[in-house]
Amino acid sequence: MIRRWLLALALLLPVTGHAGDARWDDFVTRFVAADGRVTDTGNGGISHSEGQGYTLLLAVAQNDRATFGRVWTWTRSRLQTRGDALFSWQWKPDADGGKVGDRNNASDGDLLIAWALLRGAQRWQQPGYRAEALKILADVRGKLIKPSRFGPLLMPAEKGFDRGPVVNPSYWLFPAFAEFARADRAPVWAELRQSGLALLAAGRFGQWQLPPDWLQVSDTLAPAMSHQYGYNALRVPLYLAWAGLDTPERIAPFLAFWDANTERLPAWTDLGTNAVDPDSAQPGLYAIVALVRQRQAGGTVRFGDGDNRDYYPAVLDLLSRQAAREARR
């Protein structure tokens, strides 16, 4: 009788641990400091709002409230110091512990953090997280949206990028827009979904007709800055699949690129010369390919077991696995 009572009580008590898998535990051990700073090991050891946002999002998915709490505490105290609800995009370590390297924001980091807070509020019944998320979304709407013939543009940051203007197609966080619309009740989130799809349909370049990392939106569309499909734009097929927007037509350019490079997966291609990365990508990029290919073929996604050396491919691996669990058919 006592054992039954204890079992019933255990089922009613809130979960304080997490059901994380070995990959998540390894990611936290290698890339998340005790104070909650997420280290980009492939980028000089800096931290950024994107990395903090991705880690918060994954912590919710893993029901890892302890990691979420310390990552959010660090993010809020070190990066949300601009005077608004947005976040300085970069933190640089130094002998004194580090400092903000650039007070300008990055809209993908802002949106990732807001998305994670909304999900954390729902999972752990924390209305304070929801209130913080809504403040971020309000400032994104008020400071980072610019009209265009394609619909609203999500500017990469509050400052800069106005000449053209220049946008980053991978900042369109397709799987989050419906959740933003439900929470924030602003039409711009549905409009951004449509403008992002329109830009992807029109802004294709190079031999494989891929989107660029940076896109100039003027009378004509053109690649800007790096003129590559690379470490930014490779997230586009991940987000399309995660949102259930991976129609054959939208996915065809990515499949063509991967099919042309079957011996090894390059992380980038130059959209002017069609040259590709001479090195093979880490397993995290292969995880995106596995997700997209299997969704096109149908059936269960089978991911590889390779280890990722650096933060970015490691987080892409975890995100691809989360997308496989959540994506609509």
UniProtKB/TrEMBL annotation:
InterPro entries assigned: 6-hairpin_glycosidase_sf, 6hp_glycosidase-like_sf, Glyco_hydro_8
Annotated keywords: Carbohydrate metabolism, Cellulose degradation, Glycosidase, Hydrolase, Polysaccharide degradation, Signal
SUPFAM superfamilies registered for this protein in UniProt: Six-hairpin glycosidases
Catalysed reaction equations from the record: Endohydrolysis of (1->4)-beta-D-glucosidic linkages in cellulose, lichenin and cereal beta-D-glucans
Keyword Cell membrane found: no
Broadest EC class assigned to this enzyme: hydrolase
Keyword Signal attached: yes
Signal peptide annotation: 1-19
EC number(s) stated in the UniProt entry for this protein: 3.2.1.4
Pfam families per UniProt: Glyco_hydro_8 (PF01270)
UniProt similarity note: Belongs to the glycosyl hydrolase 8 (cellulase D) family.
Designated name of the protein: cellulase
Taxonomic placement: Bacteria, Pseudomonadati, Pseudomonadota, Betaproteobacteria, Neisseriales
